[in-house]
Amino acid sequence: MDAEDQPIDTEAERDEDAYALSPKVVAAILDAVEEGDRERLIALMEPLHAADIADLLEQIHSDERRALIQLYDREFDGEILSELEESVREEVIGFLSPQVLAEAVRELDSDDVVDLVEFLDEPQQEAILDVLEDVDRAAVELALSYPEGSAGRLMQSEVVMAPEHWNVGQAIDHMRSSDRLPDAFYHVILVDPRLHPIGNVSLGRLMASGRDVPLKSITEEMFRVIPVTQDEEDVAYAFNQYHLISAPVVNEDGRLVGQITIDDAMIVLDEEHEEDILRLAGVGEGSLSDRVVETVKGRFPWLAVNLVTAIMASMVIAQFDGVIAQYVALAVLMPIVASMGGNAGTQSLTVAVRAIATRDLTGSNVWRVIRREVLVGLANGLAFALLMAVVGYFWFGSTSLAIVLAAAMIINLVIAGLAGTVIPVVLDRFNVDPALASGAFVTTVTDVVGFFAFLGFAAVYLL
Amino acid sequence: MDAEDQPIDTEAERDEDAYALSPKVVAAILDAVEEGDRERLIALMEPLHAADIADLLEQIHSDERRALIQLYDREFDGEILSELEESVREEVIGFLSPQVLAEAVRELDSDDVVDLVEFLDEPQQEAILDVLEDVDRAAVELALSYPEGSAGRLMQSEVVMAPEHWNVGQAIDHMRSSDRLPDAFYHVILVDPRLHPIGNVSLGRLMASGRDVPLKSITEEMFRVIPVTQDEEDVAYAFNQYHLISAPVVNEDGRLVGQITIDDAMIVLDEEHEEDILRLAGVGEGSLSDRVVETVKGRFPWLAVNLVTAIMASMVIAQFDGVIAQYVALAVLMPIVASMGGNAGTQSLTVAVRAIATRDLTGSNVWRVIRREVLVGLANGLAFALLMAVVGYFWFGSTSLAIVLAAAMIINLVIAGLAGTVIPVVLDRFNVDPALASGAFVTTVTDVVGFFAFLGFAAVYLL
To answer: Which residues of A touch B178 (CB under 8 A)?
Structure first.
């Protein structure tokens, strides 16, 4: 059968299938809440996954949230808390009755509790830790002792390990007799007598091997040990780059203290991406469920930075007010040069920021990339110079104006390619997140250069 | 120990740890290639993972690439091909001798071969399919018969399944006696007599349960079946939202045809993110290893769209040339209003595009989000109106000019919030990727509104 012949689901069906949470379901749930019909609410929520319920809570109004949670009461599941965004999470915790909260938290794994409490205020954090059993509380407090954003915060302490000299049969018997296996695990970790991990045996491989086979002979080729203080960003990179499913975490002495599984790494990767996209757009942290005041506060600083750069560009224009007064066409055309430079610069900078994040832009190829971006700027500059010269000539009937426009366009697009690459690379060298700060710098450069080149050429050439 | 007391690795150590591929290693390898020292090259490459070797090949020059591959010869591993970016992959395949290529491809799993050949030209594709054994070739060709970007292309056909009435002991015995278990699997899939999947039993749970326990009683709570034609984007969403590790894939009749594992989903998620970021910045597909010509071609259309919108903005300015000739200060200040609007619009639009991608912005909350963005625009508009009025007054000493500036700023930031949300939502409704097209529309709106409001008010108020 040919690929073209394959029926793709219609959009409607796809939506049906992909969204567990349809607007129709949301409306029905809000309806049940309004009528105070607890049984109907529970029936409607029953098929929903905790992640979908969390999405629902994020999408509705704060008053509806409170009403829903109070009506839902004891049905509230701990996993919903784990899935909620921070901004909504704190509010929801406040809505829960102490008994419901206690029950919800006790259901969770220790790494989920860590994730839940690490950004809470002291009193809320205490309230949650207090309901945990001593063993769990100790595990959570140990994890909290590791730096924020480190592997130690991400790992779960439950692991399955085996001495390096065991064979397959011993490992299987051990697991079958153990009464506290983790909820999710994919490897048996081989350890030496000092508890240093020396290899991973996948459960699949274990199943496929005879009982007498030594574990040592069937360890996976790919084996990475993660230091407990390693940055979670590097952990996510390793999982993504080497296709890891789980990896052992070790303390400063190299002793096994826990494991990180791919689902945790996937969440970190997702967050890093989100952060990059939002930072590139000059949106600080923030989510759709933030209130107006928080959102204004989050966006104001970035607009303020932009205001400063815009004023700098205006000051360049102000130097040429005499020329503009004589040739108003300059005022009409100058935003084009600046805008094209800004766009070309953003293109280069986005490619560079992404390449730095994925570690594809390194000391080994930085000069080649800069050279390429400058050449790309030159090529596009020449193309658009020609286009703009034609536009300028036919619009204002002046050959000189067309030449000035063309020259400024070439210069600005070359500078855009250069600045768009060099600025993020330099910021990265100084350990400033290039996604965070490059945009403002690059557009300042392209605005200033664009206005200066265009108006400067005009002053020399037209007067 | 307190979190603050924890020593974080210094940057140098972190780099050492996180980058298997340091510029030093790259330099040593290129050195060995230049000297034609095959043994040293092999020794240097030996500790590197296929993914790192692929990164290396992407970072070096095309001539170096050819020399390295020819020197490395038979050592070349099939997995390196899987890890390469498409643009470099085709070139590398061309550099490999037919025997080396054949050997490299035969090592791969069927889903990796699909990934490898699906975007190759017909002759290259044929050359690779020809070296496969008949069974593998049939599996690859079946996968290629599913639509591009569908679950069918992503899945592996190797699965471990068990009849629904089996118990733990039977499943384990079956696996231990099977001689063709997949390389990586995490679940035993329970199927009914018609081969419809009805549940997943995780290997960990299997290990933890007695031999007599029926499989049906220990299936995972979370179970999603993926239709073979489902879009890979929806597959990745499901894995991310529901923390799946693997999921069965079924054909139109609901029969089990394969499975998708989390590592494949993670790659898709990563690609989707990359695409979103690049599209938001007006960079088409493309990678750091593309040549200048390809890069120019990729970026030109986006700059051309921007040129059209910039010219539209200029045409608005041209309507007011008389006013500008009288008050040159207007030409100096007008880019500020447009630039602030453009930035605020980009903020709103990025948040909206992300929220649509993560399905947090739905029919249920779209009006609330639009309302919020407009209010945020109003609040920031008022703040910056005040600031700019002060700047305008002290810079040009004119109260009227300050009032015009402030009024235009408020209007443009409100419109930015509105356009930044409504435009991506509408594009999404019409099945146009909002990441792709929103930027140009939104900045057109903010430029046109910014210039028109500012110059229009000035024309009325200052003349």
So the answer is: 208
